[in-house]
Amino acid sequence: METHFPCGPGYSLLRQTLKDLPKPLPKGATAAASTDKEILSLTLHGVKRIEHAEFYPFDAGVIANAAAQTITPLADGVRIDLVRDDTLTQTPAQLHGLVKLSETLAYDVTATVSNANGAQALIAPGPQATKSSTGSVTAWTAIGLAFLGGIILNLMPCVFPVLF
User: What would the pLDDT profile of 15-67 be if each residue is shown by its tens digit?
Assistant: First the structure.
């Protein structure tokens, strides 16, 4: 989906920012997660061969954020081994977060977690993942929300104390 903006210096920056937002996994790509006592492994299949990847969980307390992430390139994807958080008492049902593959490419990933000795469950992104991602935010919506936020911030320090 190509969004067209009027000419101007701010619009090219906005266009680049919208292009850099995380995307759902490409069609045909899958994500799987497995766990043992210390490691959560996230595997992406159906993406180009990856040499570098980072995982940022959306849920707190799932992985040890300061621990190193081990990346294993695969023929059709990548496996990221993550150290489980010490405070994690039970295995999460899903691993949901952002996989950053480069400065301009990041995916919103959700994978069902299975035990290391069990079969891995694969989840392809469904219509809900697509709707909740960048497809629902248009440039005009972003500009309108920014304008509304600016108005609120300008009114709060100046007008609200006077009203009271």
Answer: 877 877 888 888 999 999 999 888 999 999 988 767 788 999 998 889 998 89
What single string gives the DSSP state of each residue in 73-112? EETTEEEEEEEBPTT--S--SEEEEEEE-SSS-EEEEEEE
pLDDT of res. 149: 85
CATH 2.60.40 domain position(s) in the chain = 22-124
Buried b (16+ CB within 10 A) or exposed e, 21-47: ebbbbeeebbbbbbbeeeebbbbbbeb
Q: Which carries the bigger pLDDT value, residue 151 or residue 68?
A: 68
pLDDT, tens digit (0-9, with 9 covering 90-100), for 79-104 = 999 999 988 888 888 999 999 988 87
Show the CA angle centred on residue 139, arms to residues 131 and 18, nearest 5°. Answer: 70
Exposure pattern of 91-129 as b/e (b: 16+ CB <10 Å)?
bbebbbbebbbeeeebbbbbbbbbeeeeebeebebeeeb
Q: Which CATH architecture has domain 22-124?
A: Sandwich (2.60)
**Radius of gyration of the CA atoms of the chain, in A:** 20
SS3 69: coil
- In the DSSP assignment, the letter for residue 63 is B
